[in-house]
Amino acid sequence: MSWGSLENFLAMGGYAFYVWGSYLVTLGLIVAEIVLLALRKRRALARLRLDGTAAQGDR
Amino acid sequence: MSGNINWFKYSSPQTFFPLAGRLASWFGTLAAIACAAGLYLGFFVAPTDAQQGEAYRIIFIHVPAAWMSMFLYLVMAFWAGLGLAFNTRLSGMMASAIAPTGALFTFLALWTGSLWGKPTWGTWWVWDARLTSELILLFLYFGFMALQAAIDDPRRADKAGAVLALVGVVNIPIIYFSVKWWNTLHQGASVSLTKAPTMAATMLTGMAVMAFGFWFYSIAAALMRARCIMLERERASDWAADYARGSA
Amino acid sequence: MLAAFRCVIHRDLLLAARRSSDVLTVLLFFVIVVSLFPLGVGPDPALLRTIAPGVIWVAALLASMLALQRMFASDHADGTLEQMLLGATPLGMTVAAKVFAHWVISGLPLVLISPVLALQFDFPQEFLGVLALSLALGTPVLSLIGAIGAALTLGLRGGGALLSLLVLPLYVPVLIIGAGAAEAAVSGLGGKAQLLLLGALLAFAGAFAPWAAAAALRISSE
Whole-prediction pTM value? Predict the structure, then answer.
């Protein structure tokens, strides 16, 4: 499959809205899930460290 | 003898946590490779469809997303059932780790299906058996997540979610067949979605490669989420505190 | 065991009779929801005739869901549920009895009043029987599935909205087949196939749902 030019590729034979609408939303949601997971892990670790320092302060 | 591996060794969060981390990065890498290859096949190798033009290229994410949405519910119910049967902590964590990714793919299947339907059938939505079942599947995922979110005690959340997931699994075939039957009674001769167009071999290959990509991604995402859940639930344990100190 | 079964039904019905306003509330909700539809879609008799089974079924779904929360809540609050969990009677049997009593209180009145409501929609008189029979077979299934949801959400905050989120997707087959029975009868196909399917759903749910609800009750009251 040869598209000839970038414009042709982006135009998707007139179906750009539907094709790119599908792909961009998919990409966006997957990236969002990864970012949310990374944030969740960072939050969990921060809480754990907070617990750790609190426990040391008790001693 | 591979039978000598003690699988129960990995059913405790402490031993599973590092393994899950390694597996997540491997499957994440595999997912990236498979998706890149699948997109290349889908956009640069597969020819233009004779009837649908370029619009059909949505198929490379739509069909794999729909497959994953159903498959992940089954996997989730499998872990849930395992958790109820053997009372292992890890099973429940895996079930709740899979649910959001399953809901994500269900939503994507609906979203891309809608965007595919508009140019090809001329409508954003039809009450077709598959679309309707997919919508109800999304509601089932939401119900599972809402139930678990409403319960504070993690053990009760796991078990209650497991009962709901198993009831849902029993219901999915009943829902599918009732919707299908309802649809054949009501649908006039508007659109026929059952006609499978003859697909070029490259299209099928691209779709299969993308399906593997989504599958590996689901594994990676579920394991990453399971690691978060482990850290949140095992706050009082030494290994979690050690890990937090080590990664500072 | 049958004595215990009868005893639970008798007790629940007696309790409901002493607080009959609860029963009336569900029934009135059903009547009002059904009566709202002509106001929303217009009084065209042809349109009303076609939507009648669907409207009545959706309203029945919502009404029976409204009553679900109460299925185990008061027993949970006053400690009776603990006794039932510890008692010698298998918990599934107790749950089945409670579900039956719940249906008599919240489902049966809907079945009995549905022909009157269908007449408001100019629904053909000769098919009123099919509609009522489909409700008579379908509403017990709703109570059975709902019992699982009620047991899972027992004592949770936001129980009502959560319960509807869990239970309504599972109600879909009952809704489709139940409303389909009256529609098929009107269109001349006869609703027999749908009624048989509803009977099959009832037998299936009756055999399994009480045990699933019993498992859920044990989890919720640990």
Answer: 0.89
